[in-house]
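To assess whether the prediction recovers the assembly geometry, we first specified each molecular entity separately, as shown.
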Amino acid sequence: MSKYAIEVKNVGMKFNLSQEKLDSLKEYVIKMLKGQLKYNEFWALKNVDFKVEKGDRVGILGLNGAGKSTLLKVIAGVFKPTEGEVIRHGRIVPLLELGAGFDAQYTGAENIYLYSAVLGYSKEFVDKKFDEIVKFAELEKFIDVPIKNYSSGMKTRLGFAIATQIEPDILILDEVLSVGDAKFRKKSEAKIMSMFKSNVTVLFVSHSLDQVKRICNKAILLEHGELIAAGDIDEVAAIYEEKTK
Amino acid sequence: MFKEQIDTFKRYRFLLKELVKKGIKLKYRRSYLGILWTLLEPLLTTCVLSLVFGKFFKKGDQSFPVYILTGRLLYTCFSTGTKNAMKSIRQHAGMIKKVYVPKYIYPLSGVLFNFVIFAISLIVLVGAMFVFKVKPTLWIFTAIIPLIMLFLLTFGAGMILSTMSVFFRDLEYLWDVALMLIMYTCAIFYDPDKLGANQWIFKLNPLYAIIKDFRCAVYGENMFASPAWVIMPAAISVLSVIVGVLMFKKHQDNFILHI
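The predicted structure of the complete assembly is given in tokenized form:
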């Protein structure tokens, strides 16, 4: 067994930004015939190289547009990097913002199964975890109501409950803990802290530096798609604070 | 390499099942008759078609409704299946943007859940055969051949369409028009032999050949009597799957940039 949970090796991610978005055939053909299909190359990530040890909670810091979300998507396997590779040891569960990925017409209970299936879990496993998930989300009364009637807080709670109760190896949290009421926020922070004991690796993005400091023990700092610092949270946070002054 | 792909497929088998279940459940949710519509819908449309074309054109043949029903069921399976597959990527954009899942699961589930509904609606055909005294013979078992071809053709075309429609959304409208053309060259509610000239147009349509083979099986005839009508659709079905899978595989990493 490797002592690392994630190895990001020299990852680069290039986007072709077309001046206008073309999604109709007519526009595409016209532009092609006129020879106007121009693209601007844009590297959202360049030579990013770091390793995450098992059980670490890593904060990803950086200003808007630094490439944080792109990096998380590359790690989650949603984006295929243009250069380099990502090696993952274990199962990654990303926590989707506001329950994106839920089906609105489906009830809470049905969505628990659907969402767990998307994350690659089996029916037997979800059967076992079902009650815990509902209890943690505090949705006992509403579990048979279609999701479209849920408030945004309820959806977030359900999403968080699923992602954490199914005990992933690696959990990705992208700007999610800022929603929900204060009580649930506290509860979810406590949950993440307790998961630390069971050796879950957490990748965490938030604009609240305080929150990152509370939750994480390590951090990396991105600027314009490049990795400029990595290490213990206090050191990296100090550099980040310097940058944002 | 193949082993790895089979392992991933096994891991996501539950997802495929869930998506198929979801498709069926949501299709009839909030309707009073629910899943019964899979039977009622073809029954009612066949009644309409039989009334219009049977009486109006004085076809005379007593088992005409069975003829219509076979054509209509198979055509609807193809048209709905391909449309489901085509929309599946956009429909699941929320998931695709966040979680890694082998993407072919989405169009495959769209085709599969529709095929399950289609299989259920075959009950209507059995009923109609009984009512209109079309006696099944041993040849009925050969019906499995056109059904397999139908599935492959729907899946293959669905994969091609789902790949292309990610990049060009217009395709959803274009395909509706193309489907209309396909429908009229499927001879759902008329007998192409009575059409005289222009027979060649049916020979180009693999779906018509599949429907023809299926009718042979239902009416107790040997579809292999004219082997070209079996070989042609079989070849096109397999080819469409190969082209569809290769196309999908080549472009799937770029989907995320366009949805």
